[in-house]
Amino acid sequence: MTMTLIDPFHVSTNVTNIDENSFSLPGTYTLSIIGYCGNRVCKCSITFIKQNDCCKDESIFEQHVLSAITVTPDPAKCKVTVQVGNLPACDYIEKINWGDGTSSVGPFVTGDMPMHSYNASGVYSISIIAVEEDPAMGMYCFVKLIKKSIELNCRLIGSINPGIRPSVNDAIRVFPNPTSGLFIVELSEVPIEGTRMRVVNLAGQVMMERMAVTDIKVQSVNATSLPQGLYFIQVITSGKPIAVEKFIKR
Asked: Which end of the chain has the least Cβ crowding within 10 Å, N or C?
């Protein structure tokens, strides 16, 4: 007899038994069983549905993100920090527009503190895009635009250099995806010194982190120790996530 478990992303895994740990992601699973009934091949399919608390109430989602987001200006350093408080696992900050023509792309989750340095004093309108995502489908359920106006009277002399090369902000490529362990992260340009590779789960918990090799664009990540599920790989430079991509560990 053979058993194959197909997850919500249609990834098939041969199994010998299943328990509650076999269903790491919310969504629909199919267990395909092939055996013998005498001399005949018998096939059987069993469907399992793991429920989640995502995408049920837009007003509750908005309350969560509004209470979790704090914008803190620091005039002494001419910078602003967005603090992400306690968010449900399905909610995160997708993007922050800093009001000076620059932006930071998430996901930013519980505990993250994206920061931005400005080149001059002034009044800036910061736009924060928060989303709730259905992990079973990988699609947005709700989107909330949060706007905060801040005034900076910077006391710094000279220009601010955040230490990020603009070209590194391009999308990254992850392969193979899904992965069973070792996978490759390909950057658009070699990372600068101090760049880190960080893996976080849907709850925002940092699962692993390491320094990037500074003289090559192709970085290897060993995710063998991670449980099955959906994760994000972040590229961190000067304390800021400058690129992110999803991957599935099977």
From this structure: N
Most confident region among 133-142, 180-189, 233-242 by mean pLDDT: 180-189
**89 vs 52: CA distance, rounded Å:** 10
- 215: three-class secondary structure by DSSP: coil
* Bigger pLDDT: 8 vs 35: 35
Residues 40 and 86 in one domain: no
Compute the mean pLDDT over every residue in the chain, rounded to the nearest whole number.
83
pLDDT category at 162 given cuts 50, 70, 90 is: very low
β-sheet bridge partners, residue 148:
126
| Domain boundaries, position 12 | 2-50
Whole-angstrom distance, CA of residue 48 vs CA of residue 62: 31
Q: Quote the pTM value.
A: 0.45
Q: CA 66, 72, 78 angle in degrees (round to 5)?
A: 145
Q: Is 13 exposed, middle or buried (0-12, 13-18, 19+ CB in 10 A)?
A: middle
Structure tokens at 230: 């959906």
